[in-house]
Amino acid sequence: MPEPAADVDAWERHLCAPVTGRKVICSFELLAGMTGLVANLRRWGALRPLLLADGRGTGPIPAEADAEIVVLESPHFDSLTDQVRARTRPADRLTPQVVASVEAYDPDRSAVWWTSPIGPNTPLLDRPVLGGRPPKHIELEDKMLVDELLSAVGAPPSGAVTVPAAHDDLIAASAEVRAGRDAGRARRDPSPADGDSVVWAGDARDGINGGGDFVRWVRDGRQARTAAAFFAAHCDKVRVSPFLEGVPCSVHGIVLPDGVVVLRPMELATLRDPGKGRFLYAGMGTSWEPPPADADAMRRLARDLGEHLRQRVAYRGAFGLDGVLTEDGFRVTELNPRFSGGLTRMNRAAPAAQLELIHINALLDRDIGKPASQIETEALALLEDNRFVDVMGVSTAVTAAHSVEVPVAAGQSQLEAADDADQVIGTVLCGPSPLGTFVRLVAGQGVISVGDRAAPLGVLLLEFADRTWGTGFGPVTMASAVRRQAV
Asked: Residues 467, 281: contact at Cβ < 8 Å?
């Protein structure tokens, strides 16, 4: 029977027990996206896993000696929302090929599934699921609920209103939101950065959405008409809120029986396309430093909300709060009740913190093995010592035929393919994805310093991708930092 690796300490050995000595079915992700998981499963003493992969993806892939690999016909999605919704319905992916592969791998039905954290953790083919989340957590992802949840913990009001997804209602609500913002503006120094625009975010009538697909930055009548037509076709309700100038950011927590583990804030490289009235997600980073008082306030809010979720719905496991650090402080725009992409990246940067295993054990209602306060202290120290910037983009305009890696240098306000190895500051990866083409910038050692933001690199990456591969991201801008110090 396999055992965890020799360097696995007693705590990690306790946390990985749900997979030690077991068969594991890893499903419905790109093969390249499973490489790290396969290495971890081997480290934790799992049996050789079965990988049901949605195509190859970009980057290194697992060795056949380490996993049984079945590459399925890669699905194509028109939007990230379509992909996200497919991940909430893994039972729809149980094709004859998938069923036959699972039964051949696990005839005695002793395996567990390891699935996307977005989907439910209900059993598949009579086998338990790890990595998903309870269906009641999925229901909390509706953006129409965030203001009620924040109000319950005394967070500053957002000034948002929720109205039917109809043009006249949206226009009236936008005027109401602007009036409320103008009243607040009159009580302090006016800020031209506020602008006169609003943000519309659609509900989850047909399932959760992602990637900003159901968010519109409405700046004029033309954009309002286009956005209203979209929401009328896809939603029942729309949240209308003020446009928030400032650094997009998030803060994460993990709800445990004895407390909430709250982590450090993270910048979100959410870029702007003013012409289309859209936001474009281009990665994240922990090199950015909010003012200390704001970081403390963000973490207090996350702790309060985690405690509220535990009391309200017996919540367990990870969650994240996305928002903007405005001139007035952190303002939340949405709740992500799951092990999010930001947590996944922090887990990769500081594996000794065991964030994903803690989350999975919490959902299994297992003893975590350490008090929440100790876990938080240790995780914060590890994340402090392991900063990162991870910028990326997904284009639906073109589909890459294969994966390439291009060393890049810093040109005149842009990235350039590097001719001299001494000038290389990083590598741009480009390859196929279920949405079309995926690009990522891997910064070289020493390129990122504490205090640097991820967003400028996101702008440079997408411009380089457009110039090199015709990815069609178009001109984008980054948010301004308007919070000089906490008051």
From this structure: no
Phi-psi region for residue 260, left (φ > 0), alpha (ψ -120 to 50) or beta? Answer: beta
d(CA 461, CA 474): 12
Per DSSP, 48 falls in state P
Residues 401 and 460 in one domain: yes
Parent domain of 421: 390-469
Q: Average pLDDT of the chain? A: 94
143 plus 222 within the same structural domain: yes
Question: What pLDDT, on the 0 to 100 scale, is given for residue 186?
Answer: 45
Helix (H) or strand (E) holding 457, with range, is helix 455-469
Residues 200 and 128 in one domain: no
Establish if 438 belongs to a structural domain: yes
Q: 283: Cβ–Cβ under 8 A, 6 or more apart, which residues? A: 269, 389, 390, 391, 392, 393, 440, 454, 457, 458
Number of structural domains found in the chain: 3
Predicted pLDDT at 189: 44
Using one digit for the tens of pLDDT, what is the confidence trace for 149-207?
999 999 998 899 999 999 999 999 999 999 987 665 544 444 434 457 999 999 999 99
Any alpha helices (H) in 48-144, and if so which ranges?
Answer: 80-87, 96-105, 135-139
Shared domain for 120 and 145, answered yes or no, is: no
Q: Where are the beta strands (DSSP E) in 327-423?
A: 329-336, 389-395, 404-410, 415-417
Residue that is last in its domain, among 178, 213, 243: 243
Q: Which ranges constitute the DSSP H helices of 49-121?
A: 80-87, 96-105
In a domain, 351, yes or no: no
Domain boundary among 98, 132, 166: 132
CB of 428 within 8 A of CB of 405?
yes
* Cα dist from 292 to 101, 289, 297, 380, whole Å: 52, 8, 9, 14
User: Is the residue at 357 inside a domain?
Assistant: no
User: Given the structure tokens 């954290």, which residue do they identify?
Assistant: 117
